[in-house]
Amino acid sequence: MYYVFFTGTAGSGKTTAVKEFRDYLLDQEMDVAVVNMDPAVETLPYTPDFDVRDYVDAREVMERFGLGPNSSLIVSIDLLLTKATDIKREVGEIESNYVLVDTPGQVELFAYRDTGRTFSSLLVGDSKSVNVFLMDSFIAREARSYVSLLLLSSSIRFKLGIPQVNVLSKVDLISDKELEKLLAWGEGEDLLDSLGVVDDYSFELVRTLIESLEVPPIPLSSTNREGFDKLYAEIQRILAGGEDFVTEENNSRL
Ligand SMILES: Nc1nc2c(ncn2[C@@H]2O[C@H](COP(=O)(O)OP(=O)(O)OP(=O)(O)O)[C@@H](O)[C@H]2O)c(=O)[nH]1
Ligand SMILES: [Mg+2]
Protein backbone atom coordinates (compact mmCIF):
# COMPACT_ATOMS: atom_id res chain seq x y z
CA MET A 1 0.00 0.00 0.00
CA TYR A 2 1.40 3.37 -1.03
CA TYR A 3 0.36 6.80 0.22
CA VAL A 4 0.78 9.78 -2.10
CA PHE A 5 0.28 13.16 -0.42
CA PHE A 6 -0.50 16.25 -2.50
CA THR A 7 0.65 19.43 -0.77
CA GLY A 8 1.03 23.01 -1.97
CA THR A 9 0.00 26.58 -1.35
CA ALA A 10 -3.67 27.61 -1.39
CA GLY A 11 -5.22 27.11 -4.80
CA SER A 12 -2.14 25.44 -6.33
CA GLY A 13 -4.36 22.68 -7.74
CA LYS A 14 -4.10 19.87 -5.15
CA THR A 15 -7.76 18.80 -5.14
CA THR A 16 -8.01 18.88 -8.95
CA ALA A 17 -4.73 16.95 -9.30
CA VAL A 18 -5.90 14.31 -6.79
CA LYS A 19 -9.13 13.84 -8.74
CA GLU A 20 -7.43 13.67 -12.14
CA PHE A 21 -4.56 11.48 -10.94
CA ARG A 22 -7.07 9.11 -9.37
CA ASP A 23 -8.97 8.92 -12.66
CA TYR A 24 -5.68 8.41 -14.52
CA LEU A 25 -4.76 5.46 -12.25
CA LEU A 26 -8.29 4.03 -12.52
CA ASP A 27 -8.07 4.23 -16.33
CA GLN A 28 -5.03 1.96 -16.04
CA GLU A 29 -7.09 -0.40 -13.90
CA MET A 30 -5.15 0.36 -10.76
CA ASP A 31 -6.60 0.09 -7.33
CA VAL A 32 -6.78 3.58 -5.84
CA ALA A 33 -8.47 5.28 -2.89
CA VAL A 34 -8.67 8.94 -1.91
CA VAL A 35 -8.39 10.56 1.51
CA ASN A 36 -9.60 14.10 2.12
CA MET A 37 -7.51 15.73 4.83
CA ASP A 38 -9.02 19.20 4.41
CA PRO A 39 -11.58 19.82 7.20
CA ALA A 40 -12.69 23.14 5.70
CA VAL A 41 -13.43 22.18 2.09
CA GLU A 42 -17.07 22.57 1.08
CA THR A 43 -17.32 20.61 -2.16
CA LEU A 44 -15.04 18.00 -3.62
CA PRO A 45 -14.88 16.74 -7.23
CA TYR A 46 -14.42 13.17 -5.95
CA THR A 47 -16.02 10.95 -3.31
CA PRO A 48 -13.38 10.33 -0.63
CA ASP A 49 -12.86 6.87 0.84
CA PHE A 50 -11.88 8.54 4.10
CA ASP A 51 -12.90 12.09 4.96
CA VAL A 52 -11.65 14.07 7.98
CA ARG A 53 -14.89 16.07 7.81
CA ASP A 54 -16.59 13.01 9.32
CA TYR A 55 -14.53 13.66 12.46
CA VAL A 56 -14.24 17.42 12.67
CA ASP A 57 -16.13 20.40 11.32
CA ALA A 58 -13.82 23.42 10.79
CA ARG A 59 -16.78 25.82 10.70
CA GLU A 60 -18.03 24.59 14.07
CA VAL A 61 -14.50 24.83 15.50
CA MET A 62 -14.35 28.42 14.25
CA GLU A 63 -17.55 29.33 16.08
CA ARG A 64 -16.90 27.32 19.24
CA PHE A 65 -13.40 28.76 19.84
CA GLY A 66 -13.97 32.19 18.25
CA LEU A 67 -11.24 31.59 15.65
CA GLY A 68 -10.58 32.84 12.14
CA PRO A 69 -10.61 30.48 9.12
CA ASN A 70 -6.88 29.68 9.16
CA SER A 71 -6.45 29.00 12.85
CA SER A 72 -9.69 26.99 12.96
CA LEU A 73 -8.19 24.65 10.40
CA ILE A 74 -5.02 24.23 12.46
CA VAL A 75 -7.08 23.53 15.59
CA SER A 76 -9.28 21.12 13.62
CA ILE A 77 -6.25 19.00 12.72
CA ASP A 78 -5.14 19.11 16.38
CA LEU A 79 -8.58 17.86 17.37
CA LEU A 80 -8.36 15.07 14.81
CA LEU A 81 -5.37 13.70 16.62
CA THR A 82 -7.53 13.16 19.71
CA LYS A 83 -9.53 10.72 17.60
CA ALA A 84 -6.47 8.86 16.36
CA THR A 85 -7.70 5.39 17.36
CA ASP A 86 -10.99 5.66 15.46
CA ILE A 87 -9.24 7.22 12.45
CA LYS A 88 -6.60 4.50 12.36
CA ARG A 89 -9.30 1.82 12.44
CA GLU A 90 -11.30 3.42 9.62
CA VAL A 91 -8.24 4.09 7.44
CA GLY A 92 -7.08 0.54 8.15
CA GLU A 93 -10.13 -0.71 6.27
CA ILE A 94 -8.87 0.82 3.02
CA GLU A 95 -7.21 -1.90 0.98
CA SER A 96 -6.24 -0.09 -2.22
CA ASN A 97 -2.67 -0.17 -3.53
CA TYR A 98 -2.54 3.60 -3.87
CA VAL A 99 -4.04 6.07 -1.43
CA LEU A 100 -3.99 9.68 -2.64
CA VAL A 101 -4.21 12.26 0.14
CA ASP A 102 -5.64 15.70 -0.58
CA THR A 103 -4.36 18.23 1.97
CA PRO A 104 -5.45 21.73 3.04
CA GLY A 105 -3.88 24.85 1.48
CA GLN A 106 -2.55 26.03 4.86
CA VAL A 107 0.91 24.61 4.16
CA GLU A 108 2.19 25.75 7.56
CA LEU A 109 0.61 22.54 8.77
CA PHE A 110 3.33 20.65 6.89
CA ALA A 111 6.10 23.24 6.80
CA TYR A 112 6.20 24.36 10.42
CA ARG A 113 3.89 22.43 12.68
CA ASP A 114 4.23 18.94 14.02
CA THR A 115 0.58 18.04 13.49
CA GLY A 116 0.92 17.60 9.71
CA ARG A 117 3.71 15.09 10.20
CA THR A 118 1.96 13.37 13.11
CA PHE A 119 -1.30 13.06 11.24
CA SER A 120 0.35 11.82 8.04
CA SER A 121 2.33 9.22 10.02
CA LEU A 122 -0.94 8.10 11.58
CA LEU A 123 -2.46 7.56 8.14
CA VAL A 124 0.57 5.89 6.61
CA GLY A 125 1.51 3.52 9.45
CA ASP A 126 4.06 1.02 8.13
CA SER A 127 3.32 1.71 4.45
CA LYS A 128 5.49 3.69 2.08
CA SER A 129 4.72 7.27 1.23
CA VAL A 130 5.74 10.12 -1.03
CA ASN A 131 4.82 13.78 -1.06
CA VAL A 132 3.94 15.56 -4.31
CA PHE A 133 4.55 19.29 -3.78
CA LEU A 134 2.68 21.53 -6.20
CA MET A 135 4.38 24.74 -7.30
CA ASP A 136 1.77 26.86 -9.08
CA SER A 137 3.52 27.60 -12.39
CA PHE A 138 1.54 30.81 -12.82
CA ILE A 139 3.18 32.11 -9.63
CA ALA A 140 6.54 30.40 -10.27
CA ARG A 141 7.03 32.37 -13.54
CA GLU A 142 8.61 35.13 -11.49
CA ALA A 143 12.16 34.17 -10.42
CA ARG A 144 11.86 35.30 -6.78
CA SER A 145 8.56 33.46 -6.40
CA TYR A 146 10.15 30.36 -7.95
CA VAL A 147 12.94 30.48 -5.36
CA SER A 148 10.44 31.08 -2.51
CA LEU A 149 8.41 28.07 -3.63
CA LEU A 150 11.55 25.92 -3.69
CA LEU A 151 12.36 27.07 -0.16
CA LEU A 152 8.85 26.19 0.97
CA SER A 153 9.22 22.83 -0.74
CA SER A 154 12.48 22.25 1.14
CA SER A 155 10.82 23.17 4.44
CA ILE A 156 8.13 20.59 3.85
CA ARG A 157 10.62 17.99 2.64
CA PHE A 158 12.63 18.54 5.81
CA LYS A 159 9.66 18.66 8.19
CA LEU A 160 7.78 15.66 6.82
CA GLY A 161 10.89 13.57 6.32
CA ILE A 162 9.49 11.59 3.40
CA PRO A 163 10.61 11.52 -0.26
CA GLN A 164 9.21 14.36 -2.29
CA VAL A 165 8.48 15.16 -5.94
CA ASN A 166 8.09 18.79 -6.97
CA VAL A 167 5.65 19.52 -9.78
CA LEU A 168 4.87 22.71 -11.67
CA SER A 169 1.09 22.69 -11.63
CA LYS A 170 -1.31 24.24 -14.19
CA VAL A 171 1.30 24.48 -16.96
CA ASP A 172 -1.53 24.76 -19.50
CA LEU A 173 -1.98 28.32 -18.20
CA ILE A 174 1.51 29.53 -19.14
CA SER A 175 3.12 30.12 -22.52
CA ASP A 176 5.66 27.76 -24.12
CA LYS A 177 8.31 30.41 -23.60
CA GLU A 178 7.52 30.69 -19.90
CA LEU A 179 7.56 26.91 -19.56
CA GLU A 180 10.94 26.76 -21.27
CA LYS A 181 12.27 29.26 -18.74
CA LEU A 182 10.86 27.26 -15.80
CA LEU A 183 12.39 24.04 -17.16
CA ALA A 184 15.80 25.70 -17.45
CA TRP A 185 15.55 26.97 -13.86
CA GLY A 186 14.71 23.41 -12.77
CA GLU A 187 17.98 22.27 -14.32
CA GLY A 188 19.77 24.96 -12.34
CA GLU A 189 20.32 27.14 -15.43
CA ASP A 190 19.77 30.90 -15.64
CA LEU A 191 18.02 31.18 -12.28
CA LEU A 192 20.66 33.37 -10.67
CA ASP A 193 20.75 35.58 -13.79
CA SER A 194 16.96 35.89 -13.82
CA LEU A 195 16.99 37.13 -10.22
CA GLY A 196 18.94 40.21 -11.22
CA VAL A 197 20.98 41.90 -8.52
CA VAL A 198 20.85 40.00 -5.23
CA ASP A 199 22.85 40.34 -2.02
CA ASP A 200 25.55 37.83 -1.05
CA TYR A 201 23.23 36.00 1.32
CA SER A 202 20.57 35.42 -1.37
CA PHE A 203 23.21 34.42 -3.92
CA GLU A 204 24.60 31.69 -1.67
CA LEU A 205 21.13 30.58 -0.63
CA VAL A 206 19.96 30.14 -4.23
CA ARG A 207 23.19 28.40 -5.25
CA THR A 208 22.76 25.88 -2.42
CA LEU A 209 19.12 25.43 -3.27
CA ILE A 210 19.92 24.66 -6.92
CA GLU A 211 22.57 22.14 -5.86
CA SER A 212 20.14 20.39 -3.55
CA LEU A 213 17.47 19.88 -6.24
CA GLU A 214 17.26 16.10 -6.61
CA VAL A 215 14.97 16.02 -9.64
CA PRO A 216 13.77 19.08 -11.60
CA PRO A 217 10.12 19.97 -10.96
CA ILE A 218 7.82 18.03 -13.32
CA PRO A 219 5.47 20.16 -15.47
CA LEU A 220 1.89 19.04 -14.85
CA SER A 221 -1.57 19.95 -16.07
CA SER A 222 -4.73 18.47 -14.60
CA THR A 223 -6.63 19.88 -17.56
CA ASN A 224 -4.91 17.77 -20.23
CA ARG A 225 -2.95 15.28 -18.10
CA GLU A 226 0.37 16.60 -19.35
CA GLY A 227 3.12 15.18 -17.14
CA PHE A 228 0.97 12.48 -15.54
CA ASP A 229 3.05 9.63 -17.02
CA LYS A 230 6.21 11.30 -15.79
CA LEU A 231 4.78 11.92 -12.32
CA TYR A 232 3.64 8.32 -12.06
CA ALA A 233 7.07 7.05 -13.16
CA GLU A 234 8.80 9.25 -10.60
CA ILE A 235 6.48 8.14 -7.80
CA GLN A 236 7.13 4.52 -8.76
CA ARG A 237 10.87 5.09 -8.89
CA ILE A 238 10.82 6.53 -5.38
CA LEU A 239 8.48 3.95 -3.90
CA ALA A 240 10.25 1.01 -5.50
CA GLY A 241 13.60 2.53 -4.52
CA GLY A 242 12.79 2.01 -0.88
CA GLU A 243 13.33 5.59 0.31
CA ASP A 244 10.92 6.29 3.12
CA PHE A 245 10.43 7.91 6.50
CA VAL A 246 13.64 8.68 8.35
CA THR A 247 14.37 5.59 10.42
CA GLU A 248 16.32 5.34 13.67
CA GLU A 249 19.17 3.82 11.69
CA ASN A 250 19.61 6.48 9.00
CA ASN A 251 18.71 9.25 11.44
CA SER A 252 21.80 8.43 13.47
CA ARG A 253 23.92 9.14 10.39
CA LEU A 254 22.65 12.75 10.20
N1 LIG B 1 -6.04 25.59 -16.08
C1 LIG B 1 -5.89 24.81 -15.00
N2 LIG B 1 -6.57 25.08 -13.88
C2 LIG B 1 -6.40 24.28 -12.82
C3 LIG B 1 -5.53 23.16 -12.85
N3 LIG B 1 -5.55 22.56 -11.64
C4 LIG B 1 -6.42 23.28 -10.89
N4 LIG B 1 -6.93 24.31 -11.59
C5 LIG B 1 -7.89 25.33 -11.12
O1 LIG B 1 -7.30 26.04 -10.04
C6 LIG B 1 -8.27 26.34 -9.04
C7 LIG B 1 -7.83 25.76 -7.70
O2 LIG B 1 -7.78 24.35 -7.83
P1 LIG B 1 -7.92 23.37 -6.60
O3 LIG B 1 -7.70 22.01 -7.12
O4 LIG B 1 -9.17 23.62 -5.84
O5 LIG B 1 -6.69 23.85 -5.72
P2 LIG B 1 -6.32 23.43 -4.24
O6 LIG B 1 -4.84 23.46 -4.17
O7 LIG B 1 -6.99 22.15 -3.88
O8 LIG B 1 -6.93 24.62 -3.38
P3 LIG B 1 -7.10 24.71 -1.78
O9 LIG B 1 -7.52 23.35 -1.30
O10 LIG B 1 -8.13 25.77 -1.58
O11 LIG B 1 -5.76 25.11 -1.25
C8 LIG B 1 -9.59 25.74 -9.54
O12 LIG B 1 -10.30 26.77 -10.20
C9 LIG B 1 -9.15 24.69 -10.54
O13 LIG B 1 -10.09 24.46 -11.56
C10 LIG B 1 -4.81 22.89 -14.07
O14 LIG B 1 -4.01 21.95 -14.20
N5 LIG B 1 -5.03 23.75 -15.10
MG1 LIG C 1 -8.17 21.66 -2.20
TrEMBL record:
NCBIfam families: PRK13768.1-2, PRK13768.1-5
Keywords: GTP-binding, Hydrolase, Nucleotide-binding
Top-level taxon: Archaea
Pfam families: ATP_bind_1
Family: Belongs to the GPN-loop GTPase family.
Species this protein is from: Metallosphaera hakonensis JCM 8857 = DSM 7519
Stated name of the protein: GTPase
Keyword set includes Hydrolase: yes
Protein's UniProt keywords contain Nucleotide-binding: yes
One annotated GO molecular function: GTP binding
